[in-house]
């Protein structure tokens, strides 16, 4: 198997996918922006590299939807940072988006691999 290539163009991610991935990154604990970026990068084996120009507008949008909330805190390096946390509404949205993602990815797999049985 060849080495995975990172997505070089922000447009390559399907619309709405970044929001779902941020909610997923926050499912277990509150994180600051850099922590979210690192979580997504590590969880995707460095394939997904989210830039701050995409991350912070998405965080703002998710907060406006009521799916996350934020509070100022101190990082492990004694820096002031805004921490983001999943809300109850955000947990429900993540569950809904996860179901949609499974359906969409199965449909794409069927199109890309016609005749192969999908798991």
Describe the protein's architecture and organization.
- The chain is α+β, with helices and mostly antiparallel strands and 119 residues long.
- It contains four helices and three strands, in the order αβααββα.
- It has a three-stranded antiparallel sheet with strand order 1-3-2.
- Strand 2 and strand 3 form a beta hairpin.
* Overall domain count: 1
The CATH H-level homologous superfamily: Winged helix-like DNA-binding domain superfamily/Winged helix DNA-binding domain
- Give the overall average pLDDT: 88
Major β-sheet profile: 3 strands, antiparallel
Portion of residues within helices: 40-55%
Helix/strand/pairing category: alpha+beta
Binned strand content: 5-15%
CATH architecture: Orthogonal Bundle
Q: Low-confidence spans: pLDDT under 50, at least 5 residues? A: none
Cα(first) to Cα(last) distance is 20 Å
SS summary, helix count? 4
For the secondary structure, the number of strands is 3
The CATH top-level class label: Mainly Alpha
- CATH fold annotation: Arc Repressor Mutant, subunit A
In short:
With 119 residues, the chain is an alpha+beta fold.
Task: Summarize the SSE layout with pairings.
Blueprint lengths: L16 H9 L5 E2 H11 L8 H14 L2 E7 L5 E7 L1 H25 L7
Antiparallel strand pairs: 1-3, 2-3
Helix pairs in contact: 1-4
Core attributes:
alpha+beta; Arc Repressor Mutant, subunit A; 119 residues; globular
């Amino acid at each position: 198997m060849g080495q995975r290539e990172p997505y070089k163009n922000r447009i390559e991610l399907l619309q709405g996918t970044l929001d779902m991935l941020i909610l997923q990154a926050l499912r277990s604990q509150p994180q600051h922006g850099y922590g979210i970026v690192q979580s997504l990068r590590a969880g995707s084996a460095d394939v997904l590299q989210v830039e701050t120009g995409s991350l912070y507008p998405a965080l703002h949008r998710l907060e406006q939807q009521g799916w996350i909330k934020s509070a100022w805190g101190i990082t492990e390096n004694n820096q002031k940072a805004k921490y983001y946390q999943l809300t109850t509404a955000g947990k429900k949205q993540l569950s809904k988006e996860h179901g949609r993602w499974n359906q969409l990815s199965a449909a794409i797999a069927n199109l890309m691999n016609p005749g192969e049985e999908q798991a």
